[in-house]
Amino acid sequence: MRKPVAVGMAVGRSSRMDAKVAAVKKEVKVGGDFETRGLFCAEEIAELRHRLLAWYDVNHRILPWRKNPHSKRSDRDAGPPPPEDKSDFAYCVWVSEVMLQQTRVETVKAYYTRWMEAYPTLADLAEADLERVNELWAGLGYYRRARFLLEGARHVRDKCGGRMPGEVEELHKIPGIGMYTASAIASIAFGRRAGVVDGNVIRVLSRLRALAGDPRAPANTKLHWRLSNSVVDADRPGCFNQALMELGATVCTPKAPKCGECPARAQCLALRRQEEWGADSEGGPSVTDFPEKVKKKPPRMETIRCCVLVVTSEGRGHFLLIKRPDKGLLAGLWEFPNVPVGAKTEEEGSKPPRGREELVGLLGEILEGGSLEAFTGKGAQKLKEVGSFEHVFSHIKQTTIVDVCSLQVDAKAFGTLSEMQGPRETRLVPVDSKEGVASLSTGVRKAIRLYSGLGKKASVSRKNKKKEGKAEADKSQRRLDQFFGKGARVKDEE
User: Can you spell out the DSSP letters for 51-97?
Assistant: First the structure.
């Protein structure tokens, strides 16, 4: 791992710094009474800008969507440079900022590269269909972000002449672009002097000024925006904003900040409080006291029962999926048929299991109003529970109980299922299609991995019981053939 390069502390103040301080004072005077609040003085703002940008030019990460003409990194040529056209560059910044919401940078890199290969320009994205967009987004979560990108691209095409606007107010009018994203695009791509506020910026500013209270409270949110807009560098606003966020991501981290490497430590009131208390005193003030930690509301608990229904025709198995509604959680995505399950009762061991009858009824509706008996001759008895898994959304902790069922159908019935539209739109994905499975949501892939585990049990058995191994493997393979169609395999994708 590349070690950060320290930026030395200057002794005295040069005439150049005096000029920067004078410029800041002029900005503050124009902006009103901000300095009288005592949060930052003009000298602190000038010093912070100077040191943070100097640190950033040496230590910034190499990212495919980033452009820094002042970079002092010797390894900065890490791939094709972002486009020179400001509107095209704004599109790149937009995509990266949306992907980075709630997602780690290392994860986003690969997704960003694939996205740009599929939709290199905003015009390409505007012509895309939501299903393909969701496929490219699969695994990033928060799928509403992908839909907003598509809707936003069409808005720019239809309302803005196909060019990204450069002002914060106009960018904010694009569907799905909030104040943070609008400010980030305006400053990074167009050089507009606009501050940004995200989780990293809140943490850095809270520590620099030792700001108490819930950072999500309206008054503190307003204060953070005011702070950010006051300190952003007028000449290099995009680089400064990225530097502030980079500092929060790599140095001023939530649990173990590297204060000794921080270029802003001279302005950090939280660090000053900690040092005044003394390093040897336990229970004293800490930099990590800021921002205030707010207890999160626990997620709502839900349980559903789904069915991995595998339709086999002419020797090839396909997963039968249904499309979710166009609004709400996971809007427009494909999933296995499922029903909500009520709370456990004292009669938990009774037959059929919770939600089984409702699930069978749903499957009957999907199969052209018919019933499982019409396809299998056994109906509910054909379903078999193979396990469960948990999946956590931002506000929901969902437990999915998984049933499995296989259907042998002729070519005519297979064609009917392939083309069903209306309220129960269906899709058939080949079981052995790595690309098709990879395009599905994380929850669906978890179910598929659970079923692929049927075959893994045979491997364990072979290791522990040599004599019984082959028989157990054959038995497990028959189960797989029953569920997925003869010869079909499902591999772990993650």
Answer: HHHHHHHHH----TT---TT---TT---SSPPPSSHHHHHHHHHHHH
Half-sphere exposure of 272 (CA within 13 A, CB side): 10
DSSP strand pairing (384-392 vs 396-408): antiparallel
φ, ψ at 311 (rounded to 5°): -100, 120
Residue 331 has pLDDT above 70, yes or no: yes
Residue 224: DSSP 8-state: H
Taking the C-alpha atoms of residue 66 and residue 267, their distance in angstroms, rounded to an integer, is 27
Single-letter amino acid, residue 321: L
Asked if 97 is an active-site residue, the reply is yes
pLDDT in tens, 447-483: 998 877 653 433 333 334 333 334 333 433 333 333 3
Q: Which two tokens stand for residue 123?
A: 């015009």
Q: Token pair for residue 346?
A: 């004292």
What value, to the nearest 5°, has the Cα angle with vertex 133 and ends 238 and 150? Answer: 55
C-alpha to C-alpha distance for 240 and 165, rounded to whole angstroms: 21
The rounded distance, in Å, linking the Cα atoms of 451 and 317 is: 14
Task: Kindly report which listed range (22-36, 160-174, 274-288, 391-405) carries the lowest average pLDDT score.
Answer: 22-36
What is the torsion angle, in degrees rounded to the nearest 10, for the CA atoms of residue 417, residue 390, residue 447 and residue 477? -140
Task: Please state, in angstroms and rounded to a whole number, the distance separating the CA atoms of residues 406 and 262.
Answer: 59
* Terminal CA-CA length for the chain: 25
> What token pair was written down for 231?
């300190």
- For residues 306 and 146, give the distance between their C-alpha atoms in angstroms, rounded to a whole number: 25
Asked whether the bond before 352 is cis by omega within 30 degrees of 0, the reply is yes
Does the pLDDT of residue 206 top 60, yes or no?
yes
Is 447 in contact with 306 (CB distance < 8 Å)? Answer: yes
Q: Mean pLDDT lowest for which of 53-67, 284-298, 380-394, 478-492?
A: 478-492
Q: Which of 44, 47, 97, 335 is catalytic?
A: 97
The two tokens of residue 156 are: 């720019």
Across the range 242-270, mean pLDDT stands at 97
415-447 per-position pLDDT tens digit: 877 766 666 788 899 999 988 888 888 899 999
Report percent pLDDT > 70 for the chain.
76
What tokens were used for 187?
């400053």
* Other Cβ atoms within 10 Å of 439 Cβ, number: 20
Q: Quick one: how far is CA 339 from the chain centroid?
A: 26
Domains of the chain, earliest start first? 15-289 (1.10.340.30), 300-484 (3.90.79.10)
296: buried, middle or exposed (CB in 10 Å: 19+, 13-18, 0-12)?
exposed
Of 183, 201, 180, the residue nearest 192 (C-alpha): 183
Cα–Cα distance, 405 to 93 (Å, whole number): 45
Q: What is the mean pLDDT of the chain?
A: 82
